Fold this sequence. Notes:
Helices cover 73% and strands 0% of the residues. It is mainly alpha-helical.
Amino acid sequence: MKQTPDNQGSSLLSRFYARNIDGRIMRSMAAASVLATVGTLPFVGWRITVGLLLGGVLALVNHHWLSSSAAAALNVVAYGAKPRIRVTQYVLRYAVIAATVFAAYKLGIVSLAASILGLSTFVAALFVEAFREAYLGLIHREEIS
């Protein structure tokens, strides 16, 4: 398989520290998770706080898995490479996330609603990126003559 700069063994931490949009989204997701967890700590029960934390961590892992799966699928299309991913692996990540949340809920460790809210940190990260792009577009726009 041909290696491109975007898919050369990128780990979760290398994606986190990347200076591209993927890194910014990962950092925004992590920041949203930390802010939600720390912000709710003194006000709500510990199950809600742990649910937000679990959901945030699972959202980061899910985003990494999705990015890796999409990169592998695009390499198959672009380079005609042998596929490294099957549909079962693509769907398996949802099963792993659902099973993790379900097990934690059944053990009484997390609040189900808080876990789902923690999984939504990707949406918060997209809003942060959209506001960043809008801000930079307004500040660095060129005048039309």
